[in-house]
Every structure is written in structure tokens, then in C-alpha cells.
Design a protein that fits this description.
Shape: rod-shaped
Order of helices and strands: EEHEHEHEHEH
Distance between the termini: 156 Å
Strand order of the largest sheet: 1-3-2-4-5-6
Helix content: 55-70%
Mean pLDDT: 84
Number of strands: 6
Strand content: 5-15%
Largest sheet: 6 strands, parallel
Number of helices: 5
Low-confidence stretches: 1-21
């Protein structure tokens, strides 16, 4: 099912002012694919719609705008899955439209659908970041190009999310390793303090042993002499007095 709508002014828009730059993901099978089409020719727009109808696995909702004002308003009030644009319009051009879209919605695929484009111009548009270009004489290429563009952005987003997950994991591992190193340093310092305390205790015990040995020796000498005097006195006390 296709819906065709021309937006030429901000009036009557109820979607609000959204300029999200994140990719919400391509629609699932049977869901609605929102396409913004910048095209001033009603006939060319109908041909684009005709070539998309039935060739994509989604219900396609195509919103057409004709000029810069309508395009800018559509960017502010909606978030398409994909943008199609003519290369040359009476008062606007596809590259300017691409730059405006990329500034607001950098992940949204942007495909040029143009009547004529020289090889140098085509290469330049791709070099500047445009996803693809389709000549209006070859619109049978449009549906495959849309599928390819959406698959590419899905793959890019998945890769970036995986890379972000790896970066977060590395950051977490680094923090854990730093914590382990911090705890190891604390344990090492505590071990060193215990070693110092053990050495100090050993030295104190050795000093105590030395002190006790020296004190015992110093006390033993006079005690031995005193003991000898006492025994001598005992012997003398036990002898009878001479007449």
C-alpha cells in the first residue's frame, strides 16, 4: 500500500520537531518503510512509486516534497528510513539536500534519483557520502538499491555497536586490572610491613635473650661467691669452740 503526500509548509504537521540522529533500524517484513522523496515532478514521483510497489518486503509510505522549505520541514517533523532525491530542482539541488539530511540524520541512506548525471558528477556525489544514485531511465534498479542501502546501514550500525561493546568491555577489563593491581600493591605493602615488624620482633627477642644471658651471668658470680661464704659460715658455726 502506497501513500502519496506533498509537504510544502510547516502548518498542519503533528509529528513534532524531531531531529534524531540515531538509527532505529529497518522495518521488519510487512512493516512500513517510510521514504522521503524530494521531487518537483509529479510524473517522475509516480514512476518512482510504481517501481517500488510490490518489489520490497515492506509496506511503503512515500512522502513527497517539492522544494527546500518542504524538505527541511519534513526532516524536522519526521524520521524517514530512507531519502530519495532528484539531483537538480528549480530552486534546490540534491547535494544541498544530502548535506542538510546528513547533518540531522547522519545514518539515513540517501539515494539520488536523477534524469541525467555525468560520470564525474556521479563519482563526486558518492565521494561526498551519497549512498547511491539511480538514473530515471533505469528505475528497475531502484528497489534493489533501496534494499542494499538499508542492509548496508544495518550492517554498519551492527558493526559500530559491536565495536562499542568491545570498547566498553576493554574499559571494564582495564578498570578491573587496575583494581587488581591496586589490591596487589596494598597486599605487597602490607607484606613488607609485616616483614619489617617480624624482623623488629626477632631483633627484640634476640636483645631480650642477650640481656637475660648477660644479667644471669652478672648475677651468678656474686651469688656463687655468697653461696660459698654461707657454706663456710655454716661449717664454722658447726665447729666447737677451742679451749
Amino acid at each position: 500500500m502506497m501513500t502519496d503526500q506533498i509537504l510544502s509548509s510547516p502548518a498542519g504537521q503533528a509529528a513534532g520537531n524531531r531531529t534524531a540522529s540515531t538509527w532505529e533500524g529497518a522495518p521488519g517484513p510487512g512493516e512500513t518503510l517510510r521514504i522521503l522523496h524530494l521531487e518537483d515532478s509529479e510524473l517522475d514521483h509516480e514512476l518512482v512509486v510504481l517501481n517500488l510497489d510490490g518489489d520490497l518486503p515492506w509496506t511503503v509510505d512515500v512522502t513527497r516534497v517539492e522544494d527546500e522549505a518542504g524538505f527541511q520541514n519534513a526532516l524536522e517533523t519526521s524520521q524517514p528510513h530512507l531519502i530519495l532525491s532528484d539531483f537538480a530542482l528549480p530552486s534546490y539541488d540534491g547535494l544541498s539536500a544530502y548535506r542538510a539530511a546528513h547533518a540531522r540524520l547522519p545514518l539515513i541512506p540517501f539515494i539520488m534519483v536523477t534524469g541525467a548525471m555525468g560520470e564525474e558528477v556521479a563519482v563526486d556525489t558518492l565521494r561526498q557520502g551519497v549512498t547511491d544514485y539511480i538514473l530515471k531511465q533505469r528505475l528497475e534498479r531502484l528497489a534493489p538499491a533501496v534494499r542494499r542501502a538499508l542492509n548496508e546501514v544495518e550492517a554498519r550500525v551492527s558493526r559500530e555497536r559491536a565495536e562499542q561493546a568491545v570498547r566498553e568491555l576493554n574499559t571494564d577489563l582495564k578498570a578491573r586490572l587496575e583494581e587488581v593491581e591496586r589490591l596487589r600493591n596494598i597486599a605487597e605493602r602490607q607484606s613488607q610491613r609485616l616483614e619489617v615488624q617480624a624482623k623488629q620482633l626477632e631483633e627484640a627477642l634476640n636483645m631480650q635473650k642477650t640481656f637475660l644471658a648477660e644479667t644471669s651471668h652478672e648475677l651468678r658470680t656474686p651469688l656463687t661467691a655468697l653461696h660459698g661464704y654461707l657454706r663456710r659460715a655454716e661449717r664454722e658455726v658447726g665447729k666447737p669452740d677451742a679451749a
